Amino acid sequence: MRRLETVAALHEWRRDLGGSLGLVPTMGFLHEGHLSLVRRARGENDMLAVTVFVNPTQFGPREDFARYPRDLPRDLGLLEREAVDLVFVPDPQEIYPEGFQTYVTVPELSERWEGASRPGHFRGVATVVAKLFVLFRPERAYFGQKDYQQLQVIRRLARDLGFPLTVVPCPIVREPDGLALSSRNSYLSPAERQAATVLFRALQAGEAAYRAGERSGHRLQAVVKEVLAQEPLAKPDYVAVADPETLEELDEVGARGAVFCLAVWIGATRLIDNCLLARP
Ligand code: PAF
Asked: Which among 143, 149, 185, 276 is placed 20 to 30 Å from 168, CA to CA?
């Protein structure tokens, strides 16, 4: 496995490359969710690159950039075992050189839900992902469905800017008790970790109501909120019942189905999760 840190070295590596290239962008502190993307990408491409970069522009000024968990030696060991060809670990100035001022925005999709709570977040995500697409020119790029809105933003930007690649969505990986894997789970105390299972239970209750025939967005939202309210450590930020592509809030779930998206504070940790509902 090669490890590169500069854009110049990456250009050189890419120039001589034959066969299809799969790309898995990450912010490191890898868990089984990331590794499921890596394994899928390994199976579908001749060459496989993974990026480990905690992207400063997607964090707000009062967010957790400085304390975001990092463990590069461990990440490198895990990636080596998955037969990754290249890991790219740039310094911020490689991605955002002196005087950087060109950003990618996907306005409508970025303003709702996660974007409303985290202004500028998707501008940072869209910009770094577009840069990685330009640098790597992959055939396929892999993203987890846990960040559902992020996935839609990235799909939109890939279509709008005409990147000749396939965005491959990968299923959420969960702990046995349903908690979606996330690097931020490491912030949780034992009591908070237990409380965090309420996100999955709330989504399951919403899904059960949908399967039982409920189609009112408002009532489905109420079912989810009711379960969240039973957990004293959980403070919901938003509960969305939204169109799966545009993420517009739905009064009534129609033929396109819906996605439930949640952001919930568990103590000082903000967790997100979602569940995609399609007609049976
Ligand atoms: O999902 C993430 O880890 C990040 O948002 C991404 C896509 C690697 C961009 O920094």
From this structure: 185
Domains of the chain: 2-170 (3.40.50.620), 183-277 (3.30.1300.10)
Q: Residue 25 C-alpha to ligand 1 middle, in angstroms?
A: 6
Q: Is the per-residue pLDDT at 147 higher than 80? A: yes
Judge whether 34 counts as a catalytic residue: yes
Does any ligand 1 atom lie closer than 6 A to the CB of residue 75? no
Tens of pLDDT, residue by residue over 81-129, are: 999 999 999 999 999 999 999 999 999 999 999 999 999 999 999 999 9
182 CB under 6 A from ligand 1? no
Q: Which two tokens stand for residue 23?
A: 């790309």
Q: What is the DSSP string of 47-64?
A: EEEEEE---GGGS-TTSS
Nearest alpha-carbon partner for 124 in 61, 49, 34, 48: 61
- Name the residue at shortest CA distance from atom 5 of ligand 1: 125
What string of DSSP letters covers 113-163? Answer: THHHHSTTHHHHHHHHHHHHHHHH--SEEEEETTSHHHHHHHHHHHHHHT-
Statement: residue 53 has pLDDT above 90: yes
Q: Is 149's C-beta closer than 6 angstroms to any atom of ligand 1? A: no
- Is residue 278 pLDDT above 90, yes or no? no
Q: Over the stretch 210-249, which tens digit does the pLDDT of each residue have?
A: 999 999 999 999 999 999 999 999 999 999 999 999 999 9
Among 11, 31, 34, 121, the one annotated catalytic: 34
Tell me how far the alpha carbon of residue 3 is from its chain's centroid: 23
